[in-house]
Amino acid sequence: MTGKRALMLAGVLLAAMVLVSLFIPSQWEGVDVSVVQTRAQQMGGTVANPLINVTGDLQLFMFTIAGAIGGFIVGYSWRSLFGTPAQEQREGQKKASDRKEA
Prior knowledge:
Layout: H1 3-23, H2 31-42, H3 58-76, H4 78-82
């Protein structure tokens, strides 16, 4: 399968899943209702509203997206964050002492 074809297929599947989720009502409760609210009531407390009040599992989705963005940022800047030992040079890469200044 070529890259363009796979990308188009992934886009069509994503669009289909979004459309199905919009038009077919969910029979499952969100995590906030089924776990957090139930446990808070068992402990004798009440559930406090979050700082950014979103409904359903949108809060979980936003947390997942924020984690993915953070992962991409850490992955992109991995070498500057943690450095690489001097022995682990890429093939074809010159040492700083071997470079001639222009």
